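Why show two proteins at once? Because comparison is the fastest way to build intuition. When a single record is shown, students tend to memorize it. When two are placed side by side, the eye starts asking what differs. So, the first record is below.
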Amino acid sequence: MLIFKDQRVITGDQQVHISEWFGEVEDTFYKHEKSPHPKVARISNDPNEGYTGVGRTGWHIDGTFQYAPNAYSLYYMASVPKEGATVFAPLTEVIEDLSPEKYAEWDRLWMVINRRTGPIHPLIYTHPRSKKKVLCFHLGLTCDFVYNYRSPGERLTTPQELERILSDINQEFVKDNGRIQYKHNWEEGDFIISDNCAVAHEASPETQTSRSQVGLRVLHRTTVHNPIPPAKTL
């Protein structure tokens, strides 16, 4: 992650232009009438200003519903509330902290977003640029896991296994009082560029606090297309 302070006002056109330094900018599915650009997602605590509830379904990386998750996510807080942090966590460090038994199980798991049409991604895979081990996951979108995809012993998890695995993944991010987390409390002029394949994130509960209590929260997010799908080895 790179955090740039005191950037003043960044327009939608400027954010898209900066994002294009890293590749093709996705045509985001969060299309709000007040978005400053068709490729800028506008997220808010006021439905009249942007989409609400975004990022509150659990720890995740962006774009897991696609052939490849987004390469980068870029964030600019256009209107800063009194509270409403975004929380980040490094994926390689999460994997390195796993017990040998848990790593062995996760290394056999593949994430299923949609049983009919969605992609199937390895839970643990090799980052296309750093070559480090990372996770492809979304705790709020996963409908199933497959053990040993396209290998001997392939099978879907049972409902009980699915519930346990999702709980186990979440626990790795929240254990030890969230030691692995970085909680970014936004200030005016903050701009963040995040390697989406290396850093997971979640919107804190305070992001949903009403405008009347904490003021208006407006987050502008762009995502950059990733041409390389998750793979076990590269």
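Second record. Ask yourself what differs from the first in the token line.
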Amino acid sequence: MKALVFLTLLGAAFVAAEDEKVVGGYECPRHSVPYQVSLNAGYHFCGGSLISSQWVVSAAHCHMSRVQVRLGEHNIAANEGTEQWINAAMLIMHPQYNSYTLDNDIMLIKLSQPAALNSYVQTVSLPSRCPVADENCLVSGWGNTSANGDYFPDRLQCLRQPIIDDRICRNAYPHLFTQNMICSGFMQGGASSCQGDSGGPLVCSGQLQGVVSWGYDCAMQGHPSVYARVCNYTSWIRTTMGSY
């Protein structure tokens, strides 16, 4: 997984893809993002989104051999009594995932048992359409919150940010941006997803439109965060879920 570089939004150096965080955001109201999950391998390493009681969407670059999915979390360092910890039974990377370019950076995780849906654990809808430029969206995660260092919060962080026009994103990342990606954030920098947010949700109008994928140094001016474009994968997601 570290073999492929994640251009995290912070400086000029490349960072491993799993290192994305929310910079310039705020602590989410407790359990206000009930579809957000933490992927754990003895430590939090990526995020994900619950799309049914037994399936999670994350990023393909978050693939590990053993994963525990933690649901109902807010403070991942404390036992708050709302958590459900369920082992992954199966991790299915998109068959066209390219670990060099991060094209098709999406993965499905089947839980070993269904999650109990309640006020702390809920699903998010798959997109019925693709996002549009300037649409207001929410990104969340437990990733790094410092653009100039390392600070990984225990409490879930949120950030409201717009979808960026594909032409602007293509100019920001020539030869890297593909039709399977979307950009969201602020061209002036100062706020973005970052290390540790990878695989997590970008939700617009109640629909999962993006999966945190990559970017240049966190919150870097002129280089917004890049997400897998979930609307391109709804057929693959539904077919895969129906096959296992």
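One difference worth noting in the second protein: The radius of gyration is 16 Å.
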